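pinging the channel bc i need a second pair of eyes. not urgent but kinda urgent?? the chain im working w is below, pasted from the shared doc
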Amino acid sequence: MMARIAGRAVQALRDRSGNVAVMAGLLFPVMLLGAVFGVDQGSLYLERREAQALTDLAAVTAVANISRANTAAALTMADNRQGNVQLIDRATLSTPMAAGTGAQMLVEPGRYSADPSTESPWRFTPGAEPANAVRVTFRKKGKLYFGAGFFEPPVITTTGIAAARAEAAFSIGSRLLSSNTETSILNPVLGELLGVKLNLKLMDYEALANADIQALTFLEELATEIGLTAGTYDDVLAAEVTLGQVLRAVATSTSHSAARQFVLQFASGTRTGSLKVPLSYLLDLGNLGRLAIGEQAPGIEAVIGILDLVSAATAVANRNEQVNVQLGAFLNVAGASVKIAIGEPPLNTPWFAVGEAGTFVRTAQTRLYLELSVSLPGLANAKLPLYLELAFAEAELREVTCSPGGVSRVAIDARPGILEAWIGQIDPSQLKRFDRKPTVQEVQLATVDLPLLPTIAVKGRAHLQTADETAQTLIFDKREIEGRVLKTAYSTTLAGPLFSSLLGNLKFNTEPKILGGVIDPVLTGLSQTLAGFGSVIDPILFNVLTALGVRLGEADIRVNGASCSRATLVN
């Protein structure tokens, strides 16, 4: 009996039928757990993809509306069934999400630089100005369908960075003609700066003023002129060129036959072959400079006025030089001469620039010393020296506003240059020493002979300074940008003609000292006589500075083109 039982036990142990059912029964909980885990992981994967797509969309929308980036990003989430998203700061993002916390989002405007030498994760700088990009970081608790009872829902975190480039091409000090323009002064001043005798009429200058060229076309022709066959436009700007090469490239770049003829006349000057023009003081092309020579710019049309470019190039070429121009023969006065000194322009702040918000343009520092002598009834050897020092005027691109139709407006903050003017005498050799100010001495204005008195020397000195610390915002709409309308920021501290303002500060002195009752009528008459000089002096100053592309107490701004690129993901 016991043997039979033992045999049956051995036979049962050897019997393998039903093993699969047993194993299935044992493995079923494990398989079920794996299936639950797989379903949850697949769901989390799809949830992460959806969150990333929403994050990218929020970043693109935010950068397209960067002035209200938080609102734009939140509305994008709400429109895509992600309501009640909490906007947080960087400190909150660095802490773990507490249980029961809803979705959170951090929106960070900043600046993105597509610099290939910088690793991708470091190309975006949050908070940097001017902002051209937005980084959106979104996080929420993932949803577990089967594993909620076993696991803590994971946090899904996604990040998207989008950038958009809004640029404008603009220039300063570019109003070269007005109703006060006198070719009788422009011709000798420009002629002396170029080393050529000019006899252009006002209509000739107007033809130049009305002719434009493409900035990139000009640089392409200049590359040919200097023998640069490959490279980028920035390589052209870095090349050493002469004023003559610049002028010949300008002439080749235009289809305006009259303008070409006049520019070639400028280029024939004896000084144009030796004067060097550092092009970086003239032009800053921004991102356009990276284009290969011959490649045209997408989106933005950078146009330059020919007379503007000629004037700016001539002024820059004569930097740290001193030019003397005799004007008496042109003004029908006994004697008039002006000495001109142009300083080194500020580094990396040219006269014409293409860039985003924050881009600067500036004029160069300029000094003028005008000596005028006129024969006046009752006065012998009447002289009037006038010294002017103009610090650079500047303009900053404040904002380019984009709309569905492209650029809708451009805002530029402009400041006229600080002006100091003296009636007084200086050592002309100090004029081009821009590291120091010349000493202005009291000047003998005239000598007077009175009965029973020795010859009286009448001396005087006057000083005037303007300073506008607050920028004036100039707004250019789409029509004004397309028409390249020029706008001017005026000094609020220079009231009326310069010479009249100076005369109000003039202090007289006499040698030998004379009692006031005797000399006062003479000084009054002299003041009245000097006041008549204003009709000669103010036009001289206006037109000499016109030839140099600068103004007294004014900053002339022109937007030469603008573009808005589409917002795109960069990370």
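so The chain has 16 helices and 27 strands. and The chain has two domains: 29-163, 167-569. — does that match what u expected or am i reading it wrong
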